[in-house]
């Protein structure tokens, strides 16, 4: 027969419950003031009405969402954003996976591995503006690449699509966000027991077989986290696509920025809500495929 809880046990449970609430209170307050309230305000403003020379008119209308959905420009901007996201995601995954693989399994000296890993962080020592401007002397018509190709006789005239094009946008994105793919994959690979690779080799697996059957499955949580970082960063970016395309390409955030310039805050808010929903759906799909929580709690 189970014994009834004593007064000391009840008091201990209450104390433990109180300590739990006290521990989560700071995070709850921060998330409430810096995430929940701003998002709630954006959602509320997205249903307001915009009137010329008046501004915001508090009203519950669906005009902003209907105009965005019916506008072909909106679809073009979102397709452009998804295109950049997919291309950058694939390239950063390939680079991030093999760089992390090399650092974890081929660099025997830990200090050398840490030094090489720190080299990957060098671009973060400068601002985004400087990093974007630094690509212009490299990719421009009179830049290093065109000058080298002209002197080598490989081309007769400068290649124009190297700069102010979708190519330059992708190059800049890869330059900026590859590290966000390397770090979580590196973290996952570093926890793989090296004896598993040796056992796979002893069982007759080739190098590619070891990578495909051992390393890749055990690194999927890091890959998922890296993909989540890259997707959210690319889809929420405005600066890179504007600077590197010379205004020839756009993104979903470009439409938001244009609406803000015309003080059409309800339409900009509605656009932001749509973008947020798309990002959340992509994140949910990633979480559906891979249980990222395993990586976070290890």
State the fourth-level CATH superfamily.
MetI-like
Percent of residues in beta strands: under 5%
Q: What Rg do the Cα atoms give?
A: 25 Å
Give the termini distance in whole angstroms.
39 Å
Briefly note the structural class of the backbone: mainly alpha
Topology:
Blueprint lengths: L6 H39 L3 E3 L3 E3 L5 H8 L1 H34 L4 H10 L8 H6 L2 H4 L4 H9 L13 H24 L4 H9 L4 H12 L1 H16 L3 H7 L6 H10 L3 H25 L3 H5 L1
Helix pairs in contact: 1-14, 3-8, 3-11, 3-13, 8-11, 8-12, 9-10, 11-14, 13-14
Describe the structure.
73% of the residues lie in helices and 2% in strands. By secondary structure, it is mainly α. The protein has a two-stranded antiparallel sheet with strand order 1-2. β1 (49-51) and β2 (55-57) form a beta hairpin. It is flat and about 70 Å long.
Q: Features of this protein?
A:
298 residues, MetI-like fold, two-stranded antiparallel ribbon, 2 strands
Summary, kept brief:
The chain is an all-alpha fold and 298 residues long.
